[in-house]
Amino acid sequence: MCESANCILPARRNPQQGLVPPGSYHAGMTMMAVPGALQPDRDRVTHLHQGELEMDIDWQELMAITDLQELEMPADATYESPHYGPPMQVMPQPGFPLDPSPSSSSLQFCGSSQSTIFKRPYPDMVPAASCQRIGSLRNMDSSFGHVAQVGPSYARMLPAPPSSNSSPSSMQPLTAPVMSMLDHMAMTGSTESGIHDTMGTGSGSQHRTATGLCKPHLQDDLESDSGLSLGSSPPLASPGTATAGGNPYLGAGDNSMNYSDAEPLEMELEQARMRPEFLELYHMDYHQHQLNQCHMSHQSYKMPTSYGHSANIQQQAMPPPPLQGFLPELGTNKEGGINHSTSGGRAEGPYEKHRSPNVRMDMSVSRDQRRAMALKIPLPIEEIINLPVDDFNEHLSKYQLNDAQLALIRDIRRRGKNKVAAQNCRKRKLENIVHLEKEIDLLQAEKVQLTREKSEMGQNLSHLKRKIIELSVEVFGSLRDEEGKPYSPEEYTLQQTNDGNVFLVPRKPVDGSD
DNA sequence: CCAAGCTGTCATCAG
DNA sequence: TCCTGATGACAGCTT
């Protein structure tokens, strides 16, 4: 599955996108799938490690003379992190399914890593170092895959990867420095090709966090939108809880991650998430999980779930060739580095909100999703939000989640529901306003009609009054009393009985003297 | 630069 | 008591 994930993916994608001639640089990807291409021989690894040292020195120099360090490239921290020990230091924790032996097959690795990623609680499932390796492997793999997509011009910029060590099957035994070097190389290739690859590897970014090397990140602004749970939930990962639930993306020992700590990671994850290979990687990872869990159908995940949604959005937002979606915003500085900030010092990642409607939409749904990704929440956002409470709890019970993950899931659910509620509320409010406005119009029209009718009735009344007066005068003028004198209207009035007869009735005295 | 609108989020209340 | 919806208020972003 791992090999298929790493190799079939680009093979499937490239022909569709028509970006790479079959067998050209995608063939470079297939190289990575050669099983056992890189034996974790200690000497060889050491050699690679030394080569990495040299390369790292070069890298440091390069970083020193350019603005690249502002890019928060994870490579340095990845290498310098104390979590990376000697080559063979990557040792699984007890109970970790990975075969610690260097000869462990790729199949074992893939099966135990990817298939168990969501099956088992992350903390005790994957030692952080191994997680880093997984992350590095994935990202590096996908990085090469990305380059392969980019095409020969960009692929040539990549330093040649260590011979045949790009095979997923052979990556697992790689030592941390080797992986770090590979990360360097992938990073270098991306950098030279203009890709803002701050993601590089999950391990690198996490190490920066762990080692305190992380400067205020470019994407801080993106996270400043009061997106943090302000006390509505327990800290995402207190040192205690996080110890049990070390983020698989985090470096070894980086168990103190809380929201604030997670933000840089999320930023980088977000940046990396914009890379199609990462999107598809995560997509596939999750999809595989779905297949394993048989909770959702294949289609149900590929459809509107958050991850797939984002991937689709991003892919839509990326015109072929892929780099065209990023390079115009990135540009390069005079030293050939990357201008990660485009205006006013405000950090703008390659997917700044206003870049395009698609990207903006992606951003709008991505904050919680980024957090979910950061904590490896094994449920898609939409499930978290939309499942009925019973199903939701049942779903949760299928996973062993730590406090941080549970808190995040519940926050996501609460926020998601509240967001929908707020949208409904506003929609309803607008509808009420529209309705009231229409009602006002109707009432005004009715008022006009009533006014007109009143006016007409008044006219009719006046007309009737005049008629009455005329008739009265006529009647009184035609009547004579016993003395032959006409009845005075001042002294008499006409009254009509129920039977229709009309009588002449004397008026009552006004002064009441009688 | 400012104002209006939009949107997400939080706090709170009610069912 | 918990869950959920409704809604006011606030902040950030976009137009």
TrEMBL record:
In which domain of life is the source organism classified? Eukaryota
What's an example of a GO molecular-function annotation for this chain?
RNA polymerase II cis-regulatory region sequence-specific DNA binding
Q: Where is the BZIP domain?
A: 408-471
Which InterPro entries would you find in this protein's record? bZIP (IPR004827), bZIP_Maf (IPR004826), bZIP_sf (IPR046347), NFE2-like (IPR047167), TF_DNA-bd_sf (IPR008917)
Q: What is this protein called?
A: Nuclear factor, erythroid 2
Name the lineage.
Eukaryota, Metazoa, Chordata, Craniata, Vertebrata
CDD domains per the record? bZIP_NFE2-like
Family named by the database record: Belongs to the bZIP family. CNC subfamily.
Keyword Cell membrane in record: no
Question: Is Transcription regulation set as a keyword in this record?
Answer: yes
Residue ranges with Low complexity bias: 226-246
Where do the record's region annotations for Disordered lie?
Answer: 217-257
Which Pfam family is an annotated match for this chain, by its short name?
A: bZIP_Maf
List the keywords (alphabetical).
Activator, Coiled coil, DNA-binding, Nucleus, Transcription, Transcription regulation
Coiled-coil annotated residue ranges, if any: 426-467
Organism annotation: Erpetoichthys calabaricus
Name one cellular component (GO) term: nucleus
